[in-house]
Every structure is written in structure tokens, then in C-alpha cells.
Write a structure and sequence with these properties.
2 copies of one chain form a homodimer. By secondary structure, chain A is α+β, with helices and mostly antiparallel strands. The first copy, chain A, is 40% helix and 19% strand. The structure holds a DNA duplex.
DNA sequence: CGGACTATTTGATATGCATCAAGAAGTCAT
DNA sequence: ATGACTTCTTGATGCATATCAAATAGTCCG
């Protein structure tokens, strides 16, 4: 299996035994099932506590004891909401904090001098953003919400301080960064070696897997991004993305209704993804 | 400027003021100017000391006080030599240590299930390898020496222990990982958006910059890898790499003599790299 | 030194995807 | 609801690079 997917399988394995139900985290932001308090105020210590978060097995506190978990509660300084289309941070912004996604869906993208945009990833609940900023103390990409979102703000100094006190946390921070490196290795393979169909199959399988780890169906998903954003991520034009969706649809592999995708033949997707012989 | 290069510029900036002369580190391994003792034995404490290494401003100890530096000396358990073509580690190997390159030149590559190989990076003196292994406690790629090489073996447990004691080291470890993430972002941009000429120009400029930071000429370099390996890294076939070299040569931008490249028009290379309008 | 191998260059042709174009479908605001 | 906008789909054509092929140059080793 290719590394792009393999990386996420590792991630999934770690949490698979925990019976996570984080459905709320991925639903529309209009959804009111989660408590909605305005950030920076009226946040009871209860509400910003990692120890109480329904994402705790996906997010930074993974594998910590209850004792350590309560130490960790101080790590999240506050929460922040980002409207659809809003920037969580932008390239060039000073880096001070990492962000853990509580609800919503993001894309990260870099922009070259001449204006070409490259989507470098899509992030969902429980995933950490901002790691790109550590190296030069300023952010190196844009993080844009693809739907209304809420993130936990974790000042990086706190993270480092706590990491020095809690080896388990230190290890986890390292793993999160390593996982990102491995993920990007997989994307490099994808971009350099694969054809359009393989790329899109890999993309869908990867999304499905991550959503499944969050309690969603393995056979259905809603794309939060446009064809153009998918294309940017996969190194192809939006027309090619559209055509490839249509082709999969014609072949009875998936059913496409705008942004709603239903997987009809999971195995066939996997076969396409692994195809060397064609 | 594109991020692939920008990332390395940051790295370079950090060390640019230090007057590094690490020429020896990149020369042919036949070169006898560096002491050559067999690993695992007869290594005096003097020889494995970071505090005494001529790469200390490129490598992990960057920015540490002499006090901290001597603490660090215990981090390198031993040194290890790798013959040209030899594997420093392979995908699937248990991960226990990071490696700092002392001399020599490496490639890292991932291999997909169906056997397609993707070169994910080229590493030279002072750079750290093995970060891919942290996430799953086993290596995720192959690290292969492109010339006879010597590396410092740094058990990751030691690195983590010391990181907890030396905040400056902790920060530096984080920066190294973040830099790798940012580098890979740049490669994604390259693979997804650029044409063959732009990719090769970016590749050459990047190598030149890193070599320059190690005391080498900005106008000459020796390629340690084959056209095929360059092609794999850049997502193109070896024939296209060769043709693009020839084209640059015809246009008077570079002079190609096998693996020896002389840069005749650095600015033109940069222009090609930045080209959006063509 | 000579033979076998690997790496590189160059040419001819094929092809997958980009580009250009136009229309359809969906979304949003008033 | 209606018009303006964005997003998506589909078709026709072109091009950059892959593929196939063969010759040349360089390297290794007995």
C-alpha cells in the first residue's frame, strides 16, 4: 500500500480501538449540537478542557493518563472560530501557536511568487495545524476554512513547556510532525508517479479512511472542497478531476451528486489506486 | 520565491554568519583529509564529540552554549560508515535512532506496493535523517548512500531526554522537523505546478544553495545522483532530465560534463524557476 | 588493456492531460 | 422567485512529456 494512505492507516490504527464518535465535529457548522460559546470570553475551564473534549483520542492528548490530561488542560489558551472562507493564519504571519481543529474543515496552501496556488493538504477535526511555522517563526502557508470552523489555540511555548514535563506528550508532538512528513512523502509519490485516476482514487480512499476514524460511513462522503481545490492538491486541472469523477461514475465505482459521493465499489477503487499494470 | 527554495534560504540564513568551512564533508569519500577510524571501536571521546565537529553549525547543536554543547556530546552514541550504494536504513526497519550526516551524500526513497520508487529527497553533510520513522516506530523509507558516507548515530531516546533538559535543543529538533515539512510543501508545488525546465532549475538552485552554505562554489557542482534519480525526485523521466540539461546547455545557461555542472548564468536559472509567463 | 556493463544522449512517435470553449447546474442575494 | 455569480460538466484540439529505440560515452573489473 502506498505511503499516503499507509500513513493515515497508522494514524487510524492508533485510535481505532477507542470507539470515537465525533460525528458532530464534521457536520455543518450551522449544526447546534455542540456548545457554541464565543471565544475569548465566558469559556469556563470545563469547556476548554482537553480532558473533556470528544476529540481527545484523535488530538494531542492521545495516550495520556488522566493526571497528565489535566495538566494538559492549560495548554489550550482559548478557542477561535473561523468563518467559511476565512483565514486561520496566512503565509508570513508570525508564528506563535499551533491549532487543533475542533470542528470544521480546512485547506492549507502555499502560493508561489508568481501567484500559483498549491493546496498542500486538507485538515479535519482532531488534526493539528501550524507546524509549518516553527522553522522560521512565521507561517509558511495559508490555512483557510472550507466551512465554519472552531479551533483550539495552543501557544507553542506552552506546548514545548509541557512537552518537557510530560514525555508522553513530547513523543506525541514528535509523532504528529513525523506523520506529516510521511504523509507528504506519499503525496510526492502520488504527484510524481501516478495517473489521474490513481490520484483521485487515492484521494477518495484517504478521505474515507480519515472520516471513518471519526465515526463516518466508509461508503459516503461530502466533499468540502471544490473540484479546483482537489485538482490543485492532486496536481491536475479541475476539468480532469470532473472527467475522472464522471468516468468512475460511468464505471459504477462511485455515484456523484455534486459534492456528495457514494462509494459503490470500494475494492475497485483500491484496485485502481494500486494499479501498476495498465 | 518558491517555498522549496525559500525553506532552504531560511536554513541558510541561520548559519550564514558562521563562516563554515565544511569542504571536507562533501568531498569524495576517498579523500583522506578527515580522520578515518573504524566505527564501533577505538573512537576516542574526542572524536565523537559534537563540540568538536566541524559541522556543528549545520547540524543539531546549532545555537547551543558551550555548556549545553558538552551535554550534547553524549547524544551521539557512535558513528557508522555506509558504503556507496549501501542502506543506512530501509523501509520497515525498526526505528530507534536519528542520523546526522558527517560526510557523504544520501537519497531517501519510498517504494509503493507495486514497486514504483519515488526519491523523496537528497541529503548532505549536517542534515538529519530518520525523522520519518518516529510516527510508527519503524522507518518508512530507504536511506541509501550515493557515495561512501559516515553518519553520527543518535538514539532517539537520548535526543528526547536531552530535549527535555535543553529547551534550545528541543526547539531545534522541532525546527528541523518543521523545515522538512516546509521543504516537502515546496516539492509538492514543484511537482504539481511546474514544467520540466522549472523543476530542474529549482533543483539546481536548491543544490547550489545548500552546497554554498557548506563552503562550496555557487557556480559549480558535482551531481552525486543519476539522471534517473533526479527524474524520480522531480517527477519526470530520465530522458526528459537529460534533454532539459542539454537545452540549458544549448542556451548557455549551464555547462554539462557528465555529473559536473558549471553554472554560466545564475540569473537566467532563477528566471526560469520563477517563470509564470510562458 | 579489453569486454561487459551502466549511464547518458538523442531521435521518432504516442498519449494523457491541459487548454480553450460553451453550456448546464447549482447557489446566493435582493 | 429572478438575475448574477460560481461551480461543474462535457467536447474539441494541442502540447509537453512519456515511451520506444538505438547509438555513444563512461565505468568497472579481471
Amino acid at each position: 500500500m502506498l505511503n499516503a494512505i499507509a500513513a493515515h492507516e497508522v494514524a487510524t490504527d492508533e485510535i481505532a480501538t477507542h470507539e470515537i464518535k465525533a460525528q458532530e465535529a464534521y457536520n455543518q457548522s450551522q449544526d447546534q449540537r455542540l456548545p457554541r460559546t464565543s471565544p475569548m470570553q465566558a469559556e469556563s475551564s470545563f469547556k476548554v478542557a482537553c480532558s473533556n473534549c470528544n476529540l481527545r483520542e484523535l488530538c494531542l492528548p492521545i495516550g495520556l493518563s488522566t493526571d497528565e490530561m489535566s495538566q494538559l488542560d492549560g495548554m489550550v489558551a482559548t478557542r477561535k472560530k473561523v468563518k467559511q472562507g476565512g483565514h486561520l493564519f496566512s503565509s508570513g504571519d508570525p508564528f506563535t501557536t499551533l491549532y487543533a481543529i475542533r470542528t470544521g474543515f480546512f485547506k492549507t496552501c502555499v502560493v508561489s511568487e508568481d501567484g500559483r496556488e498549491q493546496v498542500t493538504g486538507f485538515q479535519m477535526a482532531g488534526e493539528i495545524m501550524g507546524l509549518d511555522g516553527i522553522v522560521s517563526d512565521k507561517h509558511n502557508c495559508n490555512a483557510i476554512a472550507l466551512e465554519d470552523a472552531e479551533v483550539c489555540v495552543m501557544p507553542f511555548n506552552h506546548v514545548e513547556d509541557l512537552s518537557r514535563q510530560i514525555p508522553m506528550l513530547q513523543r506525541h508532538v514528535h509523532k504528529i510532525m513525523s506523520r506529516e512528513i510521511v504523509r507528504e512523502n506519499g503525496v510526492m509519490m502520488l504527484l510524481a508517479n501516478m495517473r489521474a485516476e490513481e490520484r483521485l482514487a487515492a484521494f477518495l480512499l484517504n478521505l474515507l479512511q480519515r472520516l471513518h476514524a471519526r465515526g463516518y460511513s466508509k461508503s459516503e462522503l461530502i466533499l468540502r472542497m471544490t473540484r479546483e481545490e482537489i485538482g490543485s492538491y492532486l496536481g491536475m486541472k479541475l476539468e480532469t478531476v470532473s472527467r475522472t469523477f464522471s468516468k468512475f461514475s460511468d464505471e459504477g465505482i462511485i455515484e456523484v451528486k455534486q459534492k456528495n459521493i457514494r462509494i459503490l465499489d470500494h475494492d475497485k477503487l483500491k484496485t485502481i489506486f494500486n494499479a501498476s499494470t495498465c
